[in-house]
Amino acid sequence: MAAAATCGTGAGSTGSMVAAGGKNNVTSFQRRGPRASGSDSSYSRLVSIAGTRPSVRNGQLLVSTGLPALDQLLGGGLAVGTVLLIEEDKYNIYSSLLFKYFLAEGIINGHTLLVASAKEDPADILQELPAPLLDDNVKKDFDEDACNHKTAESNIKMKIAWRYQLLPKMEAGPVSSSRFGHYYDASKKMPQELIEASKWHGFFSPEKSSSTLNIEPCSLTHGYIKLLQFIQNIIYEEGFDGSNPQKKQKNILRIGIQNLGSPLWGDDICCTENGNSHSLTKFLYVLRGLLRTSLSACMITMPTHLIQNKAIISRVTNLSDTVVGLESFIGSERETNPLYKDYHGLIHIRQIPRLNNLIYDVSDVKDLAFKLKKKLFTIERLHLPPDLSDTVSRSSKQDLAEPSKLLGPGCGVMAGGKKHLDF
Amino acid sequence: MFPELNNLLNTTPDRAEQGKLTLLCDANTDGSFLVHHFLSFYLKANCKVCFVALIQSFSHYNIVGQKLGVSLTVARECGQLVFLEGLKSSVDVFFRAQAEPHPLQFLREANAENLQPLYEFVREALKPVDDGEAAWRCPVLLVDDLSVLLSLGMGAVAVLDFIHYCRATVCWERKGNIVALVHDSGDTEDEENNILLNGLSHQSHLILRAEGLPTGFCRDVHGQLRILWRTPSQPTTQRDRSLTYQYKIQDRSVSFFAKGMSPAVL
């Protein structure tokens, strides 16, 4: 079948594409293709807004999601004016972590934040953001990590699964002085002075629901109407939609909405099958309309596993731009499955938008797993397809093994640089 | 427009048919490339186009249209294209009460019965001009996409009524064409969507169905396109003609090939 035949070459081109979309300074892996050198010059142009960069493919303005590995999978980052929908994992552990990474990235870049939640006070959410990994600490800690792995597993060389050694890593380690996308330490909290220096607006649904409604009753639930009005007010007053031309410095508004669709918002799609089936979809439509006409990007986490009416999930997917699903192994039988023992869950990229283009940057890698190490959230490829290319011979693989330097363990094994691969 | 697709459909912009309803359908994949094709096709065919774009912004279609050889800004300025930008207008409608009925009026209402304001908008946009200026060939209504109307609170019957009214005006009265995109939700039980899809399939003259490959993702074959020619008004004594091709979408065009004959495999 065509799928299997082309996947063998997929690894090679993914490598060069990943390198081309990566940082313009020292990266942790060597480039394979010649394409990367040409695109470096375009990044040296200054972008006018902090924390954004133009997309390689269509010049679309991108912001980082806070997780460089996820940025790569989404084609460089989250496009300004679009919605990223995260389908929550069962106990909302990793999706809330991604939510915090998104907000922390906004604070580091100086973007304005709008945090909306029905469960926690936004001020409390901001207190719990992870601390950014700065370059000098990071190298030290990362080398420590690498050393530990080296001593433990230096005897294990890739004998059978040697092809995994050749894969370029997803952004596993921090890169020195990266301006787009930062790494965060989940065990430490963001310093208080950074939070206080940032500009943020909070929307806590129980507090706002008491005020009067000055919009005609349409089928949206009360909480959604208030949230839309709040967002629209902020966008209008702070000039994110270009309505205040005297603003000197353009900035991005990062909107984070947590647990959208849960009963705490007043929506009953998670409780019953015949609930108000249009409230959430109408909300998403008007929200997307607001985003398209302003300099903002939005991340929404939604407990789709609780939604009773499956038709709503497909409608919500069609109404969002980028959809990423998280599936954690906690509590499922996969937790004890030896196949998944190194990972904490699977990550599914369900939809990537085609913006201003007929084609889009789709990653060849479809089975991805994530794990949360002490400090870093890494996303790795789970399986390699069989290598059906014509030149499956040991001598050709040795040549390829030399230039690709891998950082960090892959699939639990330390990979060397110029080791000969003997069977 | 994609020249290869024109060959498959056996049309050129000069000989575009009239009075036809074309249904675009996508299942497990993104069928928006078909919308871009028909938009640029009818603009090149010198037809007056009313585009109800509910799902993406104007600049998106404009940038892709430029790759395909048409400029939407020029077409809009000279009156060939009437563009209803759903996302932008929805914000206006939702937050500010409008003086006169707006085509997306149903966003403000709790139980909108029908899509009459939208129909009035279409009828007004495709009204034939009487003052003898550059006459366009035939009016065309393009909708991207109808499934969004279901998500916004309209029932399947209301959307079918809307298409029926538009067909009566655009296809029958003014000998124009309608092209509409509907998502096929597949195995998720979206009943309203199935009603809409089945109802439209019975009324259309041409159905273009873009499907994802049943074996999953492939880099060289992005999907499969099924073309079905129908004659809804006549009794089906002869079988409807159907063709299936696989396609790969590139930056500025789409290449079609017979099943299993992808250049990557040969």
Automatic annotation (TrEMBL), chain A:
Pathway: tRNA modification; 5-methoxycarbonylmethyl-2-thiouridine-tRNA biosynthesis. GO terms for biological process: tRNA wobble uridine modification. It comes from the Eukaryota. Pfam families: PAXNEB (PF05625). InterPro entries: Elongator_complex_protein_4, P-loop_NTPase. Its main location: cytoplasm. Keywords: Cytoplasm, Nucleus, tRNA processing. It is found in: Cytoplasm; Nucleus. Transmembrane segments: none annotated. One of its GO terms (cellular component) is cytoplasm. Belongs to the ELP4 family. Component of the elongator complex which consists of ELP1, ELP2, ELP3, ELP4, ELP5 and ELP6. Component of the elongator complex which is required for multiple tRNA modifications, including mcm5U (5-methoxycarbonylmethyl uridine), mcm5s2U (5-methoxycarbonylmethyl-2-thiouridine), and ncm5U (5-carbamoylmethyl uridine). The elongator complex catalyzes the formation of carboxymethyluridine in the wobble base at position 34 in tRNAs. This is Elongator complex protein 4. It comes from Panthera pardus.
From TrEMBL, chain B:
GO terms for biological process: autophagosome maturation; cellular response to stress; homeostasis of number of retina cells; inflammasome-mediated signaling pathway; locomotory behavior; motor behavior; neuromuscular process controlling balance; neuron apoptotic process. Keywords: Cytoplasm, Nucleus, tRNA processing. Its main location: cytoplasm. Coiled coil: none annotated. It comes from the Eukaryota. It is found in: Cytoplasm; Nucleus. InterPro entries: ELP6, P-loop_NTPase. Signal peptide: none annotated. One of its GO terms (cellular component) is cytosol. Pathway: tRNA modification; 5-methoxycarbonylmethyl-2-thiouridine-tRNA biosynthesis. CDD domains: Elp6. Component of the elongator complex which consists of ELP1, ELP2, ELP3, ELP4, ELP5 and ELP6. Belongs to the ELP6 family. Component of the elongator complex which is required for multiple tRNA modifications, including mcm5U (5-methoxycarbonylmethyl uridine), mcm5s2U (5-methoxycarbonylmethyl-2-thiouridine), and ncm5U (5-carbamoylmethyl uridine). The elongator complex catalyzes formation of carboxymethyluridine in the wobble base at position 34 in tRNAs. Involved in cell migration. This is Elongator complex protein 6.
